[in-house]
């Protein structure tokens, strides 16, 4: 079974060009499934039936995992067994007729503009690390990029004179996103005053580096962001994705059209972007209730 999994992951890399994060997620979910099969005494993928898949999904629920997590595991299984069918390894598909659990749409939490500005002000810009962090935060909020896109951003994909950044999202889908005045200014300052001190003569193709001259990790940036949020006195759970949510919501609140926001976020389907119209609508409703004399 592990051999089949290796074949599948190789297929995702070579033919689908999926990102490392997506590959890790598929690998994690499918390894979980294979471990479940082994506990049930199933040694070959050809022995797996519809009931085995259902039992696995039920076991995830019993472990207290969210419906979203169960659905992600089911998506991984669908893709895996479809691949096995296409390759002629299996004749039947045990996942084909299994319905996906319904996931309740939850509105993403966002930061107010004031909260964003308070976080942006936290790095100590008298130090190279502080200038780097300020530039990263400004760029994150200006573009709504994913944290993996930010921490692994190559130098040659940002054009400060043109005022845009070239990003490759899920499925290596390419998009151009404007930088804005503030993020351009801070990235320029970082390149002029801080990056060379951090690099210490070492070469790196990546824009943002740590004090060893190596690219920033997602985990390190997340910890830094969380610390700045606490320092700003914000009690919300601060994550890079919260900045992405806030970027989209703030644009729509100020009149941006949905299609433009979709392109900047790199969403394939506009329905994914439409969740932010619900966010802005809900906020308007609360404002109306609070301030209207007959609300």
Describe the structure.
- Helix content is 59%, strand content 4%.
- The chain has 295 residues and is mostly helical.
- It folds into 2 domains: 2-86, DNA polymerase, domain 1; 113-290, hpI Integrase, Chain A.
- It has a 3-stranded antiparallel sheet, with no helix packed on it.
- The mean pLDDT is 88.
Question: What's the gist of this structure?
Answer:
The chain has 13 helices and 3 strands. It is mainly alpha-helical.
**Strand and helix order:** HHHHHHHEEEHHHHHH
CATH homologous superfamily caption of the largest domain: Intergrase catalytic core
Question: Main sheet?
Answer: 3 strands, antiparallel
Number of structural units classed as domains? 2
pLDDT averaged residue by residue: 88
Query: How much of the sequence is in beta strands?
Result: under 5%
Oligomer: single chain
Structural class designation: mainly alpha
- What's the end-to-end separation, in Å? 61 Å
Uncertain segments are none
Q: Which architecture of the largest domain would the CATH scheme give at its second level?
A: Orthogonal Bundle
Features:
single chain, 295 residues, mainly alpha, DNA polymerase, domain 1, hpI Integrase, Chain A, three-stranded antiparallel β-sheet, 13 helices, 59% helix
Q: Which SSEs are present, and which pair or pack?
A:
Elements: H1 2-16, H2 20-39, H3 50-62, H4 67-86, H5 113-120, H6 128-143, H7 147-151, E1 158-159, E2 164-168, E3 174-178, H8 181-199, H9 218-231, H10 240-253, H11 258-265, H12 270-273, H13 275-291
Antiparallel strand pairs: 1-2, 2-3
Helix pairs in contact: 1-2, 2-4, 6-8, 6-10, 10-13
